[in-house]
Design brief:
By secondary structure, the chain is of the alpha/beta class. The protein is built from 9 helices and 10 strands.
Length: 320
């Protein structure tokens, strides 16, 4: 892996995800009442990247319910009494510990037999707690054991594949009657993620610049995987306003490193990104952290949005 020093150090990410509206897969149930007691293997997923894997691996034998409904911020999710009850009735829960405190608490308190923590299936990296030279504030809900860890592992196809393998193995163990199907489906997902990784690697090997600016510090793993450097405007909270010093620093850096583009997200205000871009004479484009799929997404699922992200990066970085 190409490990490139990230000049923006990501603050405590234990409870941080983008303030993005999420939606379920069309194949997933949007009604939490359907979470348990069906004739299928019932899986509760905490948010889109988990729901997507559960659907891909489970196929026809799994009923997936996404706890994070459209319009909800993942890290601010509050679990209702109804959802807690449905969680108890399900066969398995798939979540990313440290991302959503309410989910973590509900899972800890539940007696659900199969608890699959995606964070335990790959390695999460420790990062510092300063942004642009200024100490970052830690979230009150931060889980102490995950202090400083960046949760955005699904944006790295290699790490996401590691998670997929773990999820597949857990499904096989929990529902042995359909183990062969889960195994086959897992292999297919891992193969697709391998191809996506090759696509990124080959497409970003030769670029005019290695630096890109985002509103949200979600792309650290992706940057390190492909030898890039992410510079985020507002750390892990895409709604926060950057300091004047940070804006000046970014403008100076953009000129020095040949940066052409400031990336923003489809579901978060593009005001700050466009202001900085206009002041620095840069263009703007979308880079999607894929925490949910909506009508505004540049694709219908994880893979198509990742391909759209790759095209945007190729253009912005001047891929040859």
């Amino acid at each position: 892996m190409n490990v490139v020093r990230r000049r923006l150090l990501i603050p405590a990410a234990a409870t941080a995800a983008a303030a993005l509206s999420l939606t379920t897969l069309s194949a997933c149930s949007t009604d939490s009442a359907a979470a348990g007691n069906t004739d299928k293997f019932d899986v509760v997923a905490s948010f889109y990247p988990m729901a997507f894997l559960a659907e891909q691996i489970g196929g026809e034998y799994v009923n997936v319910t996404n706890l994070t409904e459209p319009g909800q911020e993942p890290h601010d999710l509050e679990i209702s009494a109804r959802q807690t009850a449905q969680l108890q009735e399900s066969d398995a829960v798939l979540y990313l510990k440290g991302l959503q405190p309410a989910v973590d608490d509900a899972v800890d308190q539940s007696e659900i037999k199969t608890k699959i923590d995606a964070a335990s299936l790959t390695s999460l990296e420790e990062h510092g707690d300063e942004v642009g030279g200024h100490a970052a504030e830690h979230d009150d809900h931060e889980h102490e054991e995950l202090s400083g860890k960046d949760p955005h592992v699904w944006l790295d196809p290699v790490k996401y594949a590691e998670i997929a393998k773990g999820v597949g193995a857990a499904f096989e163990k929990a529902d042995p009657d359909h183990a062969s199907t889960y195994k086959t489906n897992t292999e297919a997902v891992v193969e697709k993620l391998g191809a996506l990784n090759d696509q990124y690697e080959n497409s970003l090997k030769n670029t005019k610049t290695k630096v890109f600016i985002t509103t949200h510090a979600a792309f650290g793993y992706l940057a390190e995987r492909y030898g890039l450097v992410e510079e985020a405007i507002s750390g892990l909270d895409p709604e926060s306003e950057p300091s004047g010093a940070r804006v000046r620093e970014l403008e100076k850096m953009a000129k020095a490193d040949g940066v052409t583009t400031v990336f923003y997200e489809t579901l978060v205000s593009d005001k700050t990104a466009k202001t900085i871009a206009a002041d620095a004479g840069l263009r703007t484009d979308v880079l999607d952290p894929i925490e949910g799929i909506t009508e505004k997404s540049r694709g219908k699922d994880y893979f198509s949005v990742q391909e759209a992200n790759l095209k945007a990066l190729q253009t912005a970085l001047g891929a040859k």
